[in-house]
Design goal:
This protein is an alpha/beta fold and 210 residues long. It has helices at 18-29, 36-39, 48-60, 64-72, 88-105, 115-118, 134-143, 152-171, 187-205, and strands spanning 7-12, 32-34, 108-111, 125-131, 183-186. The chain folds into 2 domains: 1-31 and 107-204, Rossmann fold, CATH 3.40.50.300; 36-106, no CATH class. Strands 2-3-1-4-5 form a 5-stranded parallel beta sheet, with helices on both faces.
Length: 210
């Protein structure tokens, strides 16, 4: 019997530990992990091709992303859709196509990038949202040296606003609405390891073999 593909998309509040959850979950499941450093494109004049080839070679850890991107980009460094190489909308379309092709080829964990929306209806998709209370989020980013305690609340609110606006712009939906996800977990209650355990238990209940 062919193994059922599992695609996990993770949306997360800034400072909630969602990226850490995603990376550790992918490791424990033995699947590839794709975050903003894999799926982000540079918008400088060098174009998309060199940026993506570099990311695929240095970060992905497998040949699939490189294969997908090399197959999508013509040799003249322009996407096949539209002449506006570096517009945000064009980059989002390109990024979304990469996500769809990845999900069609392998089980994986994808952080952010509206992946829950881009992959809506895909077989094996599990949509997760990670959140936490403000005090825990402040403590996390201060501990990681990302911001001083006095600056942390402002940074968190700004980053959440940017993610909410990005999601609304491209999906027309509310980023933090429960209806967009299959499960929402508060890391302040369970911690990183407890959150991963809860997700794995949920996957088992959904019938995935992990």
């Amino acid at each position: 019997m062919e193994e059922r593909r599992l695609i996990i998309s993770i949306g997360r509040q800034y400072g909630s530990g969602g990226s850490e959850v995603g990376a550790k979950l992918a490791e424990e499941l033995g699947v590839n992990f794709y975050d903003k450093n894999i799926l982000r494109m540079n918008s400088d004049e060098s174009g998309i091709k060199e940026s993506y080839f570099h990311l695929a070679d240095e970060k992905a850890g497998n040949k699939l992303l490189y294969k997908i991107i090399s197959g999508m980009i013509p040799e003249k460094k322009a996407p096949s859709f539209g002449a506006d190489l570096v517009s945000a909308d064009n980059l989002f379309r390109f990024q979304s196509e990469v996500i769809r092709k990845l999900a069609a080829e392998e089980s994986c964990v994808i952080i952010g990038r509206c992946a829950d929306y881009v992959l809506d209806g895909a077989e094996g998709l599990v949509r997760i949202f990670i959140y936490s209370d403000m005090e825990s989020r402040i403590e996390r980013i201060v501990r990681k040296g990302i911001a001083a305690k006095d600056d942390a609340p402002k940074m968190i609110k700004r980053m959440d606003r940017e993610r909410r606006d990005y999601y609304r712009y491209y999906t027309g939906k509310d980023w933090s609405s429960a209806e967009n996800y299959d499960i929402m977990i508060n890391t302040a209650k369970l911690g990183i390891d407890g959150t991963i355990k809860a997700i794995k238990n949920y996957l088992i209940l959904r019938g995935f073999e992990i």
